[in-house]
Amino acid sequence: MTKRDLGGDRIQALVDRVLPCRRVIDVGCDHGYTSMGLAQREDIGQVLATDISGPSLAKLQEVIEDGGEGWKKKITCVRADGLRGLPWREADALVISGMGGGLVRSILEGEVNLSRSCRQWVLSPQSDLAHFRTYLASLSYEIREDMVEEGGKFYTLFDVRLDGKIQPDYLEKLEEGDPFFLDYGPDLLARRDPVLLRKMRKDLVVLEDLERKLSARPLEKRGNKQESRLKEVIEEKSRLAAWLGPDR
Ligand SMILES: C[S@@+](CC[C@H](N)C(=O)[O-])C[C@H]1O[C@@H](n2cnc3c(N)ncnc32)[C@H](O)[C@@H]1O
To answer: Ligand 1 center to residue 38 CA distance, Å?
Structure first.
């Protein structure tokens, strides 16, 4: 198997998170970097790489064709919508990344027998993290979170262990419904994750800038909507600054 560069820290982090296992499914594989990274690991048996789009899947199929027998033995490509109609009825791990939180959830819920047969899910939704956290917490599995920065963007990784139990403090924080914990994640906040702190500093700069813009307009010219947005921005900013404290 010719070694391939996986194209960055985000994909490497996804690959590294997967526990040694026999069978892993990479849903929505697109360029196929994650599938290739998984296949390169000797402690992983088989990779099922899927995508709903033929042209997306073709990128990986081409690499496999050109890459020789090693790749072909380890990766099977299948065009599929989520987990529907896959050749495997069970797996050890699932990786789903680079899609919206709602879509990731509907993929997990679409074929419950297959998704729940796994011991681990490695998930990295790109939007709607607050709802996604609430959904994950409702399943009561153990959740670990990581954050990766690449090209000035921040990506949250959820490592869900279906054979573990959710941490009571994670659940408690989410049940309070506080947007701060829903958006930034109880686990990352609790251990003051250094990448999260970098994201928070960036968010703080954005809020300070927004506050300056919103308050630049004279009071009598501001509508109710603008005024209440300004209030929100000031509150969010103070909360963030207080949390960062000396790490600011
Ligand atoms: C932005 S790419 C992410 C690729 C890769 N997983 C990553 O993290 O870099 C999203 C991929 O998901 C695929 N996709 C979208 N909806 C899907 C679904 N319901 N089932 C399978 N794949 C899907 C798209 O075709 C696209 O190739």
So the answer is: 17
Q: In Å, how far are 35, 58, 101, 167 from 28, measured between CA atoms?
A: 10, 12, 13, 29
> Would residue 59 count as lying in a domain?
yes
Query: What token pair was written down for 191?
Result: 């251990």
| 153 and 204 assigned to the same domain | no
Listed residue (151, 94, 158) closest to 126, CA to CA: 158
Site residues for ligand 1, CB cut-off 6 Å: 27-30, 34, 50-53, 56, 81-82, 97-99, 103, 107
> What is the model's pLDDT at position 67?
79
Residue 189, in any domain of the structure: no
Number of domains forming the structure of the chain: 2
Tens digits of residue pLDDT in 101-120: 999 999 999 999 999 999 99
Co-location of 214 and 171 in the same domain = no
Written as six digits, the tokens of 60 are: 């990986």
Buried b (16+ CB within 10 A) or exposed e, 205-218: eebeebbeebeeee
Residue 4 lies inside a defined structural domain of this protein? no
pLDDT score of 2: 64
Q: Do residues 64 and 129 both lie within one domain?
A: yes
Could you tell me the sign of the dihedral formed by the alpha carbons of 62, 67, 72, 76, in that order? negative
Q: What span, in angstroms and rounded, lies between the C-alpha atoms of 85 and 89?
A: 9
Query: What are the φ and ψ backbone dihedral angles of 121, each rounded to 5 degrees?
Result: -120, 135
Q: How far apart (Å, rounded) are the C-alpha atoms in residues 149 and 192?
A: 15
Residue 185 falls inside a structural domain = no
Point out the residues of the chain with pLDDT beneath 50: none
